[in-house]
Amino acid sequence: MNKLFFMLLKNGFLLLLTYTIYGLLIILSYHANDYNLSFLNNTVVNEYKVIHLLPNLGNYWYIFSMMFKDYYYSFLFLFHCHVFLYPIPLFFRLAKTPLIYLKVMISISLLFQPNITVNDIVYSMLLLAIDYEKTICTIPFAKLLMILLGNLSLFFVTINLWLRKNTGNANYAFFNQLVVFNITAFIIVSSIKFYIRVQTPTEQLEEGKCIVVSKTREKKYNLLNMLKETFA
Fold it and tell me: Any idea which UniProt keywords this protein has (predicted)?
């Protein structure tokens, strides 16, 4: 009970410290902008809008450019709402390692924002590469990183051919964007699975491994043994 109390106290202190630093940054920005709160529209409010439907590495620009107007706001709500479903379950599952929880949540928030850039992907990869020696046993991080860098290079080529040279198709850029997005999401999901597996007790991991299915040994058909048993 005391261990659980100290763990919750530590997480609560970390959460309080995060909100305190965030509040201080808002106050400093408020004074730096001549006591004007207009900066909140560009830093906080704008993240929940899909304003710039320009080609980027996220799925927003392509999907919402093809979306029917009748379903636009419902999908807009869905795309933004699903991110808020992750913090609470992951908090209880990764409560023993608050820094890892914070790292995973930053990566998820960077990945699922409307206007994702190369800097966001690089920053999330740097966060997840901190435990590279451990996660290398779970996911082929180096191979995926090479594929990711290759498709990042091709993405800018296809964007240039599509928008400036007018010799390409939007689907070429979408293919590279889809590969980059899926690889980044796969690395994040695999990292979460690795951290959860590390924190799972050994007894719980071994629950499904102790079941032994006994098979009856089939007797070979032997005519001599059958005759002995019959006339014995």
Answer: Endoplasmic reticulum, GPI-anchor biosynthesis, Membrane, Transmembrane, Transmembrane helix
Angle at 108 between CA 106 and CA 109, to 5 degrees: 65
Mean pLDDT of 74-97: 83
Using alpha carbons, select from 109, 124, 181, 111 the residue that is nearest to residue 152.
181
Q: What is the mean pLDDT of residues 148-165?
A: 82
Residue with tokens 């699975």: 193
* pTM, rounded to two decimals: 0.64
Q: What is the pLDDT of residue 1?
A: 61
CA angle, 135 then 141 then 146, to 5° = 165
CA separation for the pair 94, 135 (Å, rounded): 16
- Decide: 145 and 132 in contact? Cβ < 8 Å: no
Taking alpha carbons only, the member of 121, 124, 104, 115 closest to residue 180 is: 121
Rounded to whole angstroms, the Cα distance separating 166 from 150 reads 22
Is 60 exceeded by the pLDDT of residue 68? Answer: yes
pLDDT of residue 62: 76
> CB-side exposure of 205: number of CA atoms within 13 Å?
8
Give the angle 189-134-205 at the CA atoms, nearest 5°: 70
User: Which value, in Å, is the radius of gyration of the alpha carbons in the chain?
Assistant: 27
How far is 203 from 122, CA to CA, in rounded Å? Answer: 37
- List pLDDT tens digits, range 2-23: 777 777 787 788 888 888 998 8
Instruction: Tell me which amino acid residue 6 is.
Output: F
- Ramachandran category for residue 39: left, alpha or beta (phi over 0 → left; psi -120 to 50 → alpha): alpha
E strands, 5-85, where? none
Residue 183: which of 74, 113, 107 has the closest Cα? 107
